[in-house]
From TrEMBL:
Bacitracin is thought to be involved in the inhibition of peptidoglycan synthesis by sequestering undecaprenyl diphosphate, thereby reducing the pool of lipid carrier available. Catalyzes the dephosphorylation of undecaprenyl diphosphate (UPP). Confers resistance to bacitracin. GO terms for cellular component: plasma membrane. InterPro entries: UppP. It is an enzyme of class 3 (hydrolase). One of its GO terms (biological process) is response to antibiotic. It comes from Phyllobacterium endophyticum. Coiled coil: none annotated. It is a multi-pass membrane protein. Its main location: membrane. Its EC number is 3.6.1.27. One of its GO terms (molecular function) is undecaprenyl-diphosphatase activity. Belongs to the UppP family. This is Undecaprenyl-diphosphatase. The lineage of its organism: Bacteria, Pseudomonadati, Pseudomonadota, Alphaproteobacteria, Hyphomicrobiales.
Amino acid sequence: MESETIVEALFLGLLEGMTEFLPVSSTGHLLLAGHFLGFESNGKTFEVLIQLGAILAILTVYFSRLLKIARALPSDPTARRFVTGILVAFLPAAVIGAIAHDFIKEVLFESPRLICVMLIIGGLILLWVDRLDLKARYTSVMDYPLGLCLKIGLIQCFAMIPGTSRSGATIVGALLLGTDKRSAAEFSFFLAMPTMAGAFAYDLFKNRNILTFNDGSLIFVGFIAAFISGVFVVRYLLDYVSRHGFALFAWWRLVVGTLGLIALIVMG
């Protein structure tokens, strides 16, 4: 295994963990970075499987809260509604993702230009939404009604287009549907767990016959890096968006998308 490839896997893992929970599209960043670095993984599995590190980052930070919710399930209807709401929000992505898996991986993942365009469009939408004077009706994820959860889950499906951002889609959808910024970001965290775990398991199953030992080593390096950077982001993101909103991430998307398009034109 070449040391340059290990360094690339380490860099991409750190990038995954840093961007997975931000509304900037981690997959879009990974695919663009991989394109310009010349990093190739069998069946584009690396980009999906290292998400396990980000999943474990959420579990680590929210372990005590998740344990409290699990213990309350038999007796607390609020806890049961919350868990049911997460599962309801997850279902649309599970169904559509399974049906469109091959098209997403073989067509959409192979279009850097599309990724850049979606980064720019998503940045403009995020900037617009962040400046709206929205009135929040829901300020706690534990109080989200099931209908709201389903709507957020349907909106999450737009994130199957790389460059859109899973967290960006869910946060924007939640805000437009009447939530506040902090709970919208937190719901995106919780929804990420079944969504990313499902994508991980399904992609691993689909590509189990083409993965090699070298792939596994690179994925492990990326997984560790994604976990470390993911823990940092999960710990500090909620406080940041509560105070400052999402404008910084909107501008970041616009800059990355624009520079990406310029680089594609100049370099190919």
